[in-house]
Amino acid sequence: MASTIFNASSSLPATLKGLDCNTYKPTLGNLRFIASPNKKSITVPSSSSPAPKRRVLPLAKATSDVPVKTGLSDAECEAAVAAGNVPEAPPVPPTPLAPAGTPVVPSLPLSRRPRRNRRSPALRAAFQETSISPANFVYPLFIHEGEEDTPIGAMPGCYRLGWRHGLLEEVAKARDVGVNSIVLFPKVPDALKTPTGDEAYNEHGLVPRTIRLLKDKFPGIVIYTDVALDPYSSDGHDGIVREDGVIMNDETVHQLCKQAVAQARAGADVVSPSDMMDGRVGAIRDALDDAGFQHVLIMSYTAKYASSFYGPFREALDSNPRFGDKKTIFIWKNGSYQMNPANYREAMVEVHEDESEGADILLVKPGLPYLDIIRQIRDNSALPIAAYQVSGEYSMIKAGGMLKMIDEEKVMMESLLCLRRAGADIILTYFALQAARCLCGEKR
């Protein structure tokens, strides 16, 4: 609406001069606002003069002309319309013309035209089925013992953060735009790595120290941790490796339970076994409960595939396997313990096991190449679903953007929205801070 400007300081009656402006309240008898019939303006007469000098004050300019009110009552307006005196309104807009040469065809006999629901930005927004917000993000952060932040070559924009300095700054930035959940991944000194990964449950180790510091500085933050031996193993594998190349399942689970309890004792909110050992969720749940941490959640890496999209992550943590890979339990035979990317039904086997063992959240990793797995689990489980947009996905989008082959921001947001549409409740993504800034409209 156009605003009305009133300035009567130069034409106040003498009887009003000297009055306290806080106590004097003009009435309709003091001042009258009269609409000028020929101009879009307001005239203000002085009530003390027998021949009032009118001052015409222009209305503030609006984006469209606003009709001047007539001062008629509701009953008078209705009576005027009933008598045929219909107020003037803008004309019906003309039908837009098609370009020359457009064929003239009869309308298709369609009772339903889905395009009607998306014919304007307002309609598209009203019927949007999937939404995304910073609350849906979990921000993976790499930490190390140093004081300086070290850039990760394969992951532009990501760093190994000094746990006492750079990490705190990054968490503060994330919280400023609504990202209140993080997951920690440590770069452990080689001197502390052993075949059995004992450093994983050192209560004075890098991760427990970092958790305590974060909880002290940011009490409301939600901290997820990674439960696996590969950052602590001299072999670089998620479990203990026997001399014949077999990953030892039950012995590894024993170590993982101690690691989860150490993290919970430090203040972790969610422990996340990513090792893919059989039975580890139930064993960890029992260990946490026995230690008095019934409130700590377990986010199980339920469907973690042996993917080639993990490469940049292993550079970040310097945790490439010293030999073999992660495709079967026999690492000598080009195999590991992670799932075969060709398998679809096997994911549901893992879902049933993790649900029965007490998992609170089910995670699929990687994210975008496995949207069908996310949807399958979403349709068959009532538990919250997490998706991990892994380092390879992040780096591809970053590289494409840097080479001007794609619009990085738009592709980033579309990829995250796709993960939500497939059924993910939360998304672990290195884009968390950047995407949250976009959602908040912050200009970098």
How would you describe this structure to a colleague?
This protein is an alpha/beta fold and 444 residues long. It has two domains: 28-69, no CATH class; 137-439, Aldolase class I (TIM Barrel, Alpha-Beta Barrel). It has helices spanning 74-82, 121-126, 166-176, 206-217, 249-266, 280-290, 311-317, 346-357, 371-380, 391-402, 408-422, 432-440; strands spanning 34-35, 41-44, 55-58, 137-144, 150-151, 159-162, 181-186, 222-227, 240-241, 247-248, 270-273, 297-304, 361-365, 385-389, 426-429. The strands form three sheets. The protein has an eight-stranded parallel beta barrel, surrounded by nine helices. A three-stranded antiparallel β-sheet has the order 1-2-3, with no helix packed on it. A two-stranded antiparallel ribbon has the order 9-10. A hairpin with a 5-residue loop joins strand 1 and strand 2 (41-44). The radius of gyration is 33 Å and the shape is elongated.
Lay out the secondary structure.
Elements: E1 34-35, E2 41-44, E3 55-58, H1 74-82, H2 121-126, E4 137-144, E5 150-151, E6 159-162, H3 166-176, E7 181-186, H4 206-217, E8 222-227, E9 240-241, E10 247-248, H5 249-266, E11 270-273, H6 280-290, E12 297-304, H7 311-317, H8 346-357, E13 361-365, H9 371-380, E14 385-389, H10 391-402, H11 408-422, E15 426-429, H12 432-440
Parallel strand pairs: 4-6, 4-7, 4-15, 7-8, 8-11, 11-12, 12-13, 13-14, 14-15
Antiparallel strand pairs: 1-2, 2-3, 5-6, 9-10
Helix pairs in contact: 4-5, 5-6, 10-11
